[in-house]
Every structure is written in C-alpha cells, then in structure tokens.
Amino acid sequence: MLDKIRALLDEISVVSATTREEVEELRIRYISKKGVINQLFSEFKEVHPDLKKEVGKALNDLKNAAQDKINALKEAFEAGADGQAGLDLTRPGDSVHLGTRHPLAIVRNRIIDIFGRLGFTVSEGPEIEDDWHVFSALNFAPEHPARDMQDTFFIEKNPDVLLRTHTSSVQIRVMEHTQPPIRAIFPGRVFRNEAISARSHCIFHQVEGLYVDENVSFADLKQTLLYFAKELFGENTKIRLRPSYFPFTEPSAEMDVSCSICGGKGCNLCKYTGWLEILGCGMIDPNVLEACNIDSHKYTGFAFGMGIERITMLLYGIKDIRLYFENDVRFLRQFESAI
Ligand code: PHE
Asked: Which of 30, 231, 232, 313 is least enclosed, having the fewest CB within 10 Å?
C-alpha cells in the first residue's frame, strides 16, 4: 500500500496538462469519487492496524498533494500564468480579413487579360508630360480648346509641363521608339481640371490601345472591339460605332455596347436607349504617324481609349465615381470575392 502511495505521489509531482480537458482528465483520474485515491481509501480498512497510522497519514498527504496539483493546473489555465495558459484550442478562431483588390484594378486586369489574348503587350508612360506628347504630336491645333487651362493641369504655370489629360500620349512615346508592327495597350492615370461630382473626377484611369502595321483596316478595329466587348460584357453583347471626332484619328468613332442590364430593350441605366457608350476610337491620322517617323504610306493603324471608372460602374452598378477614391472599407470589401 505504501509503495502504491509513493508511486502515485511521484507521478502526481510530474504530471502536466496542455489543455483544460487534460486537467479535467487528471482530476477524474486522481481525486474524483471513482479516482485512484478514493480507491486506496476504500482499501484502507484492510490495512494492518499497526500500520494504519502511517498509511493513513501518507494517504492524506497524497490526497492533498493531488488536490493542490489539480488546483494549480486549473489556476494556470484561468490566469494565463504560463505560455500555454489561457489557450483554448476549442474556441472559434478570430476571422482575418483578407485584403481586396480595388474594383478599378480588377477591371483593368480583365481588360489587360482580354487584349493579351489577342497579342497586345502592355506599356506605360509618364503622368507628367510635355505639350508635344499630349497635344502637338497628336495633331491638336495650337488653339485647340483641350489645351485650355480649363481642362489641363499645368505645373508651375509652365505650358510645357503638364499632367497628361489622356493616355494617348503613350501612343506617341511608343511609336517614337518602335517601328511597326506595334500591338500594345497602355493603362494609366489621367488628370483633368474638372469639378468633382458623382459622374466626373479630376483624376481617373484610361486604357489606350494601339495597333500599327501594313494593311490595318477599320474592319480590324471593329472586329477587335467586338471581341473585347463580348469578352468583358458577355457573349450576347452587340456593339455600334457612331461617327465622332478626335484630332488624332480619322475617321473617328465612339463605341456603344448593348445595355448589359436590359439587353437593349431600354432601362434606367441606358436611359432607355438600349446602348451604353464606352470608348473612343478611330484610324490613326497620318499626321500622327509622320510625327513619330512612321511611314504613313506604308503603315496604317487604329487606336482606341476607354475610361476604366465608367466601365467598372457599368459592370458593378456603381453610381458615384467618388466611391473609388474614398477608400471606405465598406465599399472595398464588397469586391472580396472578385479576382
Ligand atoms: N484620348 C481620347 C480621350 O481621352 C480617347 C481616344 C483614344 C480616342 C484613342 C480615339 C483613339 O477621350
């Protein structure tokens, strides 16, 4: 009996627990009604009377030691006294919010991806530009209203240092340094001195497209844009090209897609026209090719430019352009599941 008690004392002095459940298991094993110590107490009556005093004391010591040990372990878990303490692996975990991609980045990446499948590469140009790349090389007449202070942010009143008003400036930079064939798109930020409202902002994003080679025709432009529209808005999307004017393209057009909400029947989004305007495009004016030292008798090309904010608004039903720039997590988190 004394041997058993000593063995248990040794055992109890070294036991430890890593969870509350383990402490409970120890309690049941040692000091519960059916535990090993109570078992010894019930065997106590069989102990020889001469030994009763000694064994009784040892048994009581064992019981106290076990109780103390269990209490100490329990306390450790409650108070968080050691490294493991307070750690309850059965509690539900804290949810960690993943970062989300900005909706403009999601749509920009989709656009890059679609044109990538047609063999278009991606280039970028500077946001701070000069008059040549933003206007002159793009065939803007010297007194063209777009150069007006109203539209363009000039830096330190110097008319030759300005923030680009469109990504068409990157067309010039690329054509100046590359001979055809050229097939590339240019995503980037642009700046216009406009009042901020639900529909317009002084900073926004465009994606420009450029294709220059021998025998590039308007049919190539149309087919490229039709493929793009179907990939972005869905297989049943139709396009229409309306005549327009840009100094750097001739002929020029504006492209509408059939309304993604009503499918062309007419609704609030398309203002009951069935069509949504999404980009400007045209055949590159020979003057622009010549300004970049590209032989306009040998080569032709097309260009197009679209605003990412507007396309994102159409794709996600966003009604106010300012939401893109406020970085309100309640807005941004809605794009958590998008790629
Ligand atoms: N740069 C024009 C704009 O900002 C868009 C455009 C690009 C039109 C290329 C034709 C060709 O509105």
From this structure: 231
- State the residue for tokens 């980037």: 188
Sequence-distant (≥ 6) Cβ neighbours of residue 300 within 8 angstroms? 212, 213, 214, 215, 216, 217, 283, 284
Q: Which of 111, 168, 285 to mutate to test the pocket of ligand 1 (most atoms within 8 A of CB)?
A: 168
* Dist. CA 239 → ligand 1 center (Å): 17
Pair 255, 277: CB distance under 8 Å: yes
Q: What spacing in Å lies between the alpha carbon of 127 and ligand 1's midpoint?
A: 16
- Residue among 207, 206, 201, 189 at smallest CA distance from 324: 201
Q: Show the tokens assigned to 15.
A: 């036991």
Distances (CA, A) of 58 to 5, 34, 230, 314: 7, 19, 87, 83
Q: Tokens in use for 117?
A: 């499948």
Q: Is 171 in the pocket of ligand 1 (CB under 6 A)?
A: no
Q: What ligand 1 atom has the least distance to the C-alpha of 165? A: 4
Question: Which one, of 225, 251, 219, lies nearest residue 238 by Cα?
Answer: 225
pLDDT digits (tens, 9 = 90+) for 145-200: 878 767 899 998 788 999 999 999 999 999 999 999 999 999 999 999 999 999 89
Average pLDDT, the chain: 91
Q: Which residues contact 76 (CB under 8 A, 6 or more apart)?
A: 82, 85
Question: Are 293 and 310 within 8 A, CB to CB?
Answer: no
In CATH, what number does 103-335 get?
3.30.930.10
- pLDDT for residue 134: 96
pLDDT of residue 264: 83
